[in-house]
TrEMBL record:
Cofactor(s) for this UniProt protein: Mn(2+)
Bound cofactor: record note: The Mn(2+) ion enhances activity.
TM annotation in the entry: none
Top-level taxon of the source organism: Bacteria
Organism: Pseudomonas vancouverensis
Phylogenetic lineage: Bacteria, Pseudomonadati, Pseudomonadota, Gammaproteobacteria, Pseudomonadales
Residues that coordinate or bind Mn(2+): 102, 104, 137, 163, 357
Keyword presence, Mitochondrion: no
Protein name per UniProt: Amidohydrolase
A GO molecular function held by the record: N-acetyldiaminopimelate deacetylase activity
UniProt KW keywords: Hydrolase, Manganese, Metal-binding
SUPFAM superfamilies: Bacterial exopeptidase dimerisation domain, Zn-dependent exopeptidases
InterPro entries referenced in this protein's UniProt entry, alphabetically: Amidohydrolase, Bact_exopeptidase_dim_dom, Peptidase_M20, Peptidase_M20_dimer
């Protein structure tokens, strides 16, 4: 089926919106400009708009004209990363040290495109709840919206969302029932030693030596405590200690993440980390403090919504471009908090190009219409939509247009 004239028009508009958002990125809970931009466009589409949900979140409501029915939510994340953009597009970030390096600018514009279409063609039963979420990069935004009464104020029965995936080629859609992406918890380990002269280490307690051994010991959790058929990753990403080459410092600090594809493995890894830190503390006669910041559970996609996404993807990009049962990712996404309280499905939109969080990453604008078509096909399926502009499939014409950035 050829791409519809409406989606072609949206492609041009979404590109312009995305470049505007990309040039003015904002980090978690500071998305005031982005939220204002979203709210203004939604108002222009004729959508009922609510702002300030979970601090900077935006919710839009579109009621169908075909009577009562289910309520489904479509979600996009809005925040950028605190990193320097090293690419040089004409719409490069004007905020030094802040950069849309994960494609949330593209996600926002896909949902705006879907909102524009649905507002103009509300021929469906029930209701669509549009969720523009803050603070995904620090995995706090979804919970902030839930804590602010999202479900009570704007109830929905199911939730659908997407994330671009540079590891998949454009036109590919990946999805998996059950655990698709990992949980994520953050840890800080403080080792309090006794500082001394580097030439007389026996007079102190060296926190660097203890920390170095501890890093290795933490890896035995994955290799010796977790079932080899389960997936857990423990990464020490920061090791801070010392200020001078001839001084053994009094403290070392390790920071990192724990990721798992099941809640049981997540709990086991945390328990073993506590036990290992306590053992090292006793063995070295020092104090070791483990601080844990719980992030998000694994993304658990529900069976029926997954089948809805698979069916939609076959319509939009063709059966040959649908990867059902895609290999799980150990990256997290805080959409998991929404999927913990309501059934739904988070799927992956192929885009090629640089990996997310690379300093030269840029969202591939050519795949945005695929995302819009996916959301519209989901609405068609779940809410019995009878859109006047029925031809929203990109299966036969977009392949030549969608190239890696």
């Amino acid at each position: 089926m050829p791409i519809s004239s409406k989606v072609k028009t949206l492609a041009s508009e979404m590109r312009a919106w995305r470049h505007t958002i990309h040039s003015k990125p904002e980090v978690a809970f500071q998305e005031h400009g982005t939220a204002g931009f979203v709210a203004e466009l939604l108002h222009g589409f004729g959508v009922e708009v609510h702002t300030g949900i979970g601090q900077t979140g935006v919710v839009g409501i579109i009621n169908g004209r075909l009577g009562d029915g289910p309520s489904i939510a479509l979600r996009a994340d809005m925040d950028a990363l605190p990193m320097v953009e090293q690419g040089h597009p004409v719409y490069r970030s004007v905020h030094e040290g802040v950069f849309h390096g994960c494609g949330h600018d593209g996600h926002v514009c896909i949902l705006l495109g879907a909102a524009s279409y649905l507002a103009a063609n509300p021929m469906f039963r029930g209701k669509v709840v549009l969720i523009f979420q803050p603070a995904e990069e620090i995995v706090c935004g979804s919970q902030a919206m839930l804590d602010d009464g999202l479900l009570e104020r704007f109830p929905f029965d199911e939730l659908y969302s997407l994330h671009n995936d540079p590891m998949l080629a454009p036109q590919k859609i990946g999805v998996r029932a059950g655990a698709q992406q990992a949980s994520s918890d953050f840890f800080t380990i403080r080792i309090d030693g006794v500082g001394t002269h580097a030439g007389m280490p026996h007079l102190g307690v060296d926190p660097i030596a203890i920390g170095a051994l501890l890093v290795g010991a933490l890896q035995t959790i994955v290799s010796r405590s977790v079932n080899p058929l389960d997936s857990v990753v423990i990464s020490v990403a920061c090791f801070h200690a010392g200020e001078a080459p001839n001084v053994i410092p009094h403290q070392a600090v390790l920071e990192g993440t724990i990721r798992a594809l099941s809640s049981a493995s997540q709990a086991l890894a945390i328990q073993r980390m506590r036990e290992i830190c306590k053992g090292f503390e006793q063995a070295n006669g020092t104090q070791i403090t483990l601080e844990l910041t719980h992030g998000v559970p694994p993304i658990m996609n529900s069976d029926q919504p997954v089948q809805c996404v698979v069916s939609a993807a076959r319509e939009v990009v063709g059966k040959e471009n649908v990867i059902e049962g895609i290999t799980p990712l150990m990256a997290c996404d805080d959409v998991a908090n929404f999927l913990k309280v309501r059934p739904g499905c988070h799927f992956l939109l192929g885009q090629g190009g640089r990996m997310c969080h690379h300093p030269e990453y840029d969202f591939n604008d050519d795949v945005a219409p695929v995302g819009v078509a996916m959301f519209l096909e989901i609405v068609r399926s779940r809410l019995d939509a009878t859109f006047e502009d029925k031809d929203i499939s990109l299966a036969t014409t977009a392949a030549a247009r969608c190239q890696p950035c």
